[in-house]
Design brief:
This protein is an alpha/beta fold. The chain has six helices and eleven strands. The protein has a seven-stranded mixed sheet with strand order 3-2-1-4-5-11-10, with helices on both faces. It has a four-stranded antiparallel sheet with strand order 6-7-8-9, covered by helices on one side. The model has no long low-confidence stretch (mean pLDDT 96). Bound molecules: S-adenosylmethionine. S-adenosylmethionine binds at residues 3, 5, 17, 44-47, 50-51, 66-68, 71, 92-93, 108-109, 111, 114.
């Protein structure tokens, strides 16, 4: 199974990207959501709640889902520690379903690129559309293509709360220029007192998108008013070296 975000991967994610850690996205999403219609917000692939928890604390009515129980556990704990009531469920991009409709759906951190089949990705965008109220907005971040072709084989490490060591070795094992995907082997290790406690291998697959390609995919799903922004400057067209491309689009009032 790919993109599983298992026990060690979730632990590392939470150490590396704890609640409130921002890449410019925390401020961007907050600002964009303040401009929107009143109504509930949905964050698919909510993860440990890095973005979700501060938005909830700021008073936004936001709900989330994620495919990984381990990631959801971190998010639930963070909400519990802050006495925040949170609506969090285990669902996937491909099959999620709600009775209600949302004023906005947000997908930060390039999580949409975890949907690696282009036909499934189109169906997920249609599912987003169907879960928005008329005039509702989708806001999705994608990593720029350049980020996919950097050096492979990096080793990173983190010291956990109790002094244990966590390491991550990242090997890109396949690049498919037709499907626009990379497959990496992420090997996580947990060390205690110099002894290996456990190890985990995650098959990590991502898809890259062209800027126009993704705008067309949004339009094909029924969205209008597509605004593409680079590096979290709303309305500023992406430039050559921008690392993050944000797409915002609307379900039409009569759609
Ligand atoms: C990069 S993290 C993003 C977490 C959070 N949104 C943030 O901004 O920090 C990606 C998340 O996507 C989740 N995920 C992976 N595949 C998924 C799928 N098919 N459906 C729903 N969530 C998925 C993972 O479990 C993980 O929590």
């Amino acid at each position: 199974m790919q993109n599983r975000y298992g026990k060690l991967a979730s632990w590392v994610y939470n150490l590396d990207k704890p609640i409130g850690r921002s890449f410019g996205d925390q401020e961007y999403y907050r600002q964009r959501l303040e401009h929107g219609d009143d109504g509930p917000i949905l964050e698919p692939a909510v993860g440990n709640g890095r973005i979700f928890v501060p938005l909830l604390e700021a008073g936004f009515r936001i709900e989330g889902f994620d495919a990984s129980d381990e990631m959801l556990d971190y998010c639930r704990n963070e909400c519990r520690n802050r006495s925040l009531a949170a609506s969090l469920t285990r669902q996937t991009f491909e099959e999620f379903s709600y009775e209600k409709r949302f004023a906005a759906i947000i997908v930060p951190a390039g999580s949409f690129q975890l949907v690696t089949d282009v036909v499934s990705a189109g169906a997920v965008l249609k599912r987003f559309y169907d879960h928005l109220s008329p005039n509702g907005r989708v806001i999705i971040d994608l990593d720029a293509i350049g980020g996919f072709f950097g050096p492979s084989g990096s080793i990173r490490s983190w010291v956990a709360e109790d002094g244990d060591l966590l390491t991550l070795t990242d090997h890109r094992v396949e690049t498919n220029y037709i499907a626009q995907t990379t497959l990496s082997h992420l090997r996580y290790e947990h060390w205690h007192g110099g002894n290996l406690v456990t190890t985990e291998l995650d098959l990590f697959k991502l898809r890259w998108w062209g800027v126009n390609e993704f705008s067309l995919a949004l339009r094909a799903a029924g969205f209008t008013d597509v605004v593409v922004s680079g590096n979290y400057r709303y309305g500023k067209a992406p430039q050559k070296d921008d690392e993050i491309i944000s797409f915002e689009a609307r379900r039409p009032a009569n759609g």
